[in-house]
Amino acid sequence: MASKKPTPDQSTHDPEVRPKAARTHWSARDRLRILAAADACAPGELGALRREGIYSSHLARWRRQRAEGELAALTPKRKAAPTPEAQRQTAELARLRRENQRLQAKLAQAEVIIDVQKKLATLLGITLPAPPPDA
């Protein structure tokens, strides 16, 4: 039998686009947990960690980081309660923002009223006095 050659319009490659593998990232808490589990294992049992995608190079690096104190530095720290001064400043900022919004709305309304007054004066033929020059 002769082999069948693809014609120019037929594609020989797979058109499916496969996603790239995403790297797994472990938090400091996960690393410490995994190291504790690895330390509790006998040397032959470490293959069980491969199910999580962990290799001996990960364990060696994490053990070095743990010994140098880097992993402890990565653990999340609790946020301190805001000080009374910070709470006052936050409340003052919120009040000023509300006041700013209110004044902007009032200004927009005043500008509309002034525009209507100018148009009405033009329609009625009334001359308005010139505004005073700004100092």
TrEMBL record:
SUPFAM superfamilies in the cross-refs: TrpR-like (SSF48295)
Protein name: Transposase IS3/IS911 family protein
Chain intervals for the UniProt region annotation (Disordered): 1-25
Species name: Herpetosiphon aurantiacus (strain ATCC 23779 / DSM 785 / 114-95)
Coiled-coil residue windows: 86-120
GO molecular function terms attached to this record: sequence-specific DNA binding
Domain of life: Bacteria
Keywords: Coiled coil, Plasmid
